[in-house]
Amino acid sequence: MGSLDFLKPILHLLPEIKVPQYQPGIHERLMWTLVALLAFFVMYNIPAVGVNPARFASIDFLQVVTASRMGSLLTTGIGPIVLASIFLQLFAGAKIIKVDMSNPEEKATFQGAQKLLAIILCFVEAAIYILASSANNNAAQFLIEPPFFGSFVAMQALVILQIALGSLILLYLDEIVSKYGIGSGISLFIAAGVSLSVVGGTISLLTGQNGVVSALLSGGAEAIPNAIVVMLPLFFTALVFLVVVYAEGIKVEIPLAFERARGLGSRFPIKFLYVSNIPVILASALLLNMSFMAPALEGKHMCIGGSYLDAAGKCSSGFDLVPVIGFSSGGRMYDGLLYFITPIYHPSNSNFGAYMSYLATSKTPIFGIPEYVHVMTYILFMVVLCVLFGQFWVETANMSAKDVAEQLDNSGLQVPGFRRDPRIIERILERYIPTITILGSAFVGLLASMADMTGALGTGTGILLTVGILHKFYEDLEARHAFDSIPLMGRLFGN
Questions:
Q1: Which domains does the chain have, with CATH numbers?
Q2: Does the predicted TM-score (pTM) go above 0.90?
């Protein structure tokens, strides 16, 4: 009996998408995938009723990687769904929750618990976001005035409900794609959000105020060099894409043989990106939750050794801890400790040359620390965090050398030339898995943070995720013989 069985009475009440009674064809699967994608685009571009239109236009790093858009019906995007999956996977891996995935009934209960937690988080995250954005009586910054029903509280409740339902619809669209479409709906939405960011950024580079067209029309000897500088973010985007594609193909293959079938064998591949993009996803989820502190800290004080604020709004005595934690304005950190581990933003109205000059010469307004220190601390923070998350994920997701050795032994596999013993396989895997975990996790953290610094379109993290998603989508299509059934698709993918 699993430790989640007490949830069964509740799980039976949750709506679900039934498993198809027949095997959908490739054309039908593509149709459902496109329907889900269309629904995502519609909600992505519809502002929630009651939201200030000025806040609807803002798109930043965290929104790109969570398929969300501030002020739209997808303000929290897939954040609640991903966090619910991560939490329960970690609890199961750490044996806090006892579940036997080989038991279909327990596996179904575990998946139902994930859905229940995701539904709860849809409302919790929407409430946290709206209430944090409305902190310090600044509700008008996010909500329109005058409020509906004559009350900001009622307006907040209405907006929270809309945002929660937006993420809830994504949850069931993910089920539809998983059962009737191709691949994973969550992955599809991430790739769609990143692609929108890349397309929008490219258009802005070409036609924006400081874009390529403007640089060329300015004339003079510097017109072409200026246009090339403007296009550098697009170049870095393509470079990161190619680097990730190359890294996806790096692997070590360990030969294996079946004990009972002489002459038959296979290879166990240990990819350089052994933990894939999981470390970056976890690091992004942490940054997403930390970003909620920005509006909550704005205008606040935490007096250490002082009991009240004086007439100037400062601590009467002692020390104010909030400025050290972080200064914020408009929902974004601009100084303090938290600022130095937040993502590096490339202003959309600044060309690449001006942006690099800003990083090299500017200083924070309060403590006067050079901006390049922010660059270095953020990159170091991302690398260290990704390594820690990568090692933690390997130990909790049954991907360690010991766990993999047991899985291979249970499948009747052994290393040729050695007797069948999981300890022998474990010793061989120990030569590769721990080292590759550290190197691969550090690589994705370094690449994502460096790409963010260069202003790569779609952010470095987004490109990392999208390349992995597209690679998996390609494998799914190939497994379903889609390229044979639809010749046009085969030519599109170069087959």
A1: 1-182 (1.10.3370.10), 232-466 (1.10.3370.10)
A2: no
